[in-house]
Amino acid sequence: MSSPPKSLLARLFAFLTSFGLATFTLSMLLLITFLGTLEQAEYGLVASQARYFESFFIDRIDIGSCWRALAFDGYWDIGNVTLPLYIVPGGYTLLAILFVNLFCGGIVRIRKSPKTIGVIISHFAILFMIAAGAVSYHFAKEGSLELAEGKTSDEFRSFHERVIEIEKVQTDEKAKHSVLVIGAEKYRDLNTGKGRTFTHASLPFDVMVTNWKQHAQPKRDADGSRSDAVDGYFIQEISMLDEAGAALPDEQLASACIVIAKDKNGGAEQKGILWEFAAAPCTFTVGNDKYLVSLTHRSYKLPFAIRLDHTEQEKHPGTERARRFTSMVTKITGSREEKRVVTMNEPIRSEGYAVFQQTFDDGVRSGSGVKRSGFQIVENPSDHWPLISCIIVAEGLLLHFLMMLARFIKVNPWKFALGLIAAFNAAFALAMWKLL
Predict the structure, then answer these.
(1) Are residues 247 and 360 in the same domain?
(2) Could you tell me if residue 410 is inside a domain?
(3) Does residue 391 sit in helix, strand or coil?
């Protein structure tokens, strides 16, 4: 007697929980990790992450770049070969599929019994780790703060997120400063011939952004023949590769665009070129008010201020190579001051932020004569989630193996397994307490 046919929902659930889907997803994750690592040699870390690991779908694979990264061009130079793709899932999509597969198969479908409790705990921990990656991607903030000795700041700038900032010049020193921000996602598609207008009730003009270039610099229009010139200058796009042919780090790219201020009352239009490395912002005047418009990295406010009191470096004996950077800082929260030390691989953590020692300037190479420290600031709500998930995975697998061992030697599984786990955890906690 044949069994009744499965419903569509049952077949879908079976597909989502299948080992075949898990195998395909893990194989694809391995493949894109391999390709993304190869392309990183020419495109840089940020671009490779965006294409392979942070995307829903991969738009193309640069076969030539991967070929050169494997040093196969020494045998046969295939040149620049690109394979366009539009249906291959990216890292974001693959991890989402893996999350659903693990949840449905490893939590919902799996048989619930004392024999599988350790496996269920381990599956839950892996789900927790994938969730940590999603939280980090959507909500983490990461940037840099550079301070000279004796200076204080409570702001840091994003490494990669560019914005257009519009600020009214205040003549009253007591007046509250406010900045309007246009995120890069709203204008980075506006290359030559494209424009988009932005408006805000507090501004007496509308802002049109056009002719955006990811890496460029202003050039003088020598013969005055260019239609896209502004005040005798135009935006010239330049290569994003260094002299060796490798991709420039994202931090070294200088984006640029043209902005047009359109008076809401029908006044004359004002144009300006925004360049990321410009010495000063573009100024628009409407009536008696002046507005500063700049293209810069997004800035974030810290819940506390940091003052750099003293910074020093240790060098490897007999060399000029740095061995260790250390900064003595004061963390200022309101009227409270707290002395802290930041050094390589030993950050300070406070109020959800981590402050890492990143760079050091002894004032000699730069010629300033002033010592400076660069700090990497990270705000990540899921900062400790991967560590927690690894501990849970270890505990789950340990519980599973110990219970299997207990059945083999014919002792009470729960007492044997939980007793040993409690002893291991106590020993681990004692060791960590001694180290810290």
Answers:
(1) yes
(2) no
(3) helix
**Residues in Cβ contact with 204 at an 8 Å cutoff, skipping those fewer than 6 apart:** 263, 264, 265, 286, 287, 289
Cα(156)–Cα(377) distance, integer angstroms? 7
Over residues 253-305, the pLDDT tens digits come to 899 999 999 988 877 889 999 999 998 899 999 888 899 999 999 999 999 99
Q: Which domain holds residue 335?
A: 142-379
> In this structure, what are the phi and psi dihedrals at residue 192, rounded to the nearest 5 degrees?
-55, 130
Query: Is a pLDDT exceeding 60 seen at residue 1?
Result: no
Per residue, the 3-state secondary structure of 296-320, as one string, reads EEEEEEEEEEEEEEEEEEEECCCCC
Mean pLDDT of 118-126: 89
CB of 247 closer than 8 Å to CB of 241: yes
Whether residue 265 is found in the same domain as residue 326? yes
* pLDDT bucket at 77, cuts 50 / 70 / 90: confident
Q: Judge whether 95 lies within some domain.
A: yes
The pLDDT score that the predictor gives to residue 317 is: 75
Torsion sign, CA atoms 303, 305, 306, 309: negative
Q: How many CA atoms lie within 13 A of 132 on its CB side?
A: 16
Residue 426 lies in a domain: no
Distance CA 59, CA 119 (A): 37
Distance CA 308, CA 381 (A): 26
Same domain, 258 and 198: yes
The answer as to whether 218 is a domain residue is yes
Pair (353, 267) in one structural domain: yes
**C-alpha dihedral, 49 to 55 to 57 to 63, nearest 10°:** -10
- Is the pLDDT at 7 greater than 70? The verdict is yes
Q: Is the Cβ–Cβ distance between 363 and 371 less than 8 Å?
A: yes
Residue 10 exposed, middle or buried by CB count within 10 Å (0-12, 13-18, 19+): exposed
Total number of residues shown for the chain: 436
